[in-house]
Design a protein that fits this description.
Keywords: Ribonucleoprotein, Ribosomal protein, RNA-binding, rRNA-binding. Belongs to the bacterial ribosomal protein bL9 family. Helices cover 31% and strands 32% of the residues. The chain is of the alpha+beta class. The strands form three sheets. It has a four-stranded mixed β-sheet. A three-stranded antiparallel β-sheet has the order 2-1-3, with no helix packed on it. Strands 5-7 form a two-stranded antiparallel sheet.
Length: 148
């Protein structure tokens, strides 16, 4: 099935790209979550608008990405969450939580879709999180999860 991506999808492409994927992947994952729209001749006209919107939000150069990476890695991020007696969280830490914590810690604005968690964060303590700023630049930030 031919689709137009409306968001960046890891391993598939960026917003505004026209890609061919398996029907089930498109119907069951990409389309319901709003990551893509079906390709049509009329939809092809929307591609340029999607690409212009992407250019506004994306980090343009590697130098700019490296500057933001330096600012991110210099910030100490602390999250206060509800936890049980054994140090297990009630729920888990989401990329949106991490983005908000970075902003409150004085770091730069980070899009939650660029934050990559290797595994769900469900315990108190120190954790490492990757932030994909540019296809060639990835920042690793440390997060201290503490009990509220």
């Amino acid at each position: 099935m031919k689709i137009i991506l409306t968001n960046e999808v890891s391993g598939l492409g960026n917003a505004g790209d026209i890609v061919e994927v398996k029907d089930g992947y498109a119907r069951n994952y990409l389309l319901p979550r709003g990551f893509a729209i079906r390709w049509t001749k009329g939809g092809e006209k929307d591609v340029e608008q999607i690409r212009r919107a992407r250019k506004i939000h994306e980090i343009a150069t590697i130098e700019q990405a490296n500057e933001i990476k330096g600012r991110l890695e210099g910030v100490t991020v602390r999250l206060k969450v509800r936890a049980g007696d054994q140090g297990r969280l009630f729920g888990s830490v989401t990329p949106a939580d991490v983005a908000a914590a970075v902003k409150t810690a004085g770091g730069p604005d980070v899009d939650k879709r660029r934050i990559e968690l290797d595994a769900p964060i469900k315990t108190l303590g120190s954790h490492r999180v990757s932030v994909r700023l540019h296809p060639e630049v990835v920042a690793k930030i440390g997060i201290e999860v503490g009990a509220a």
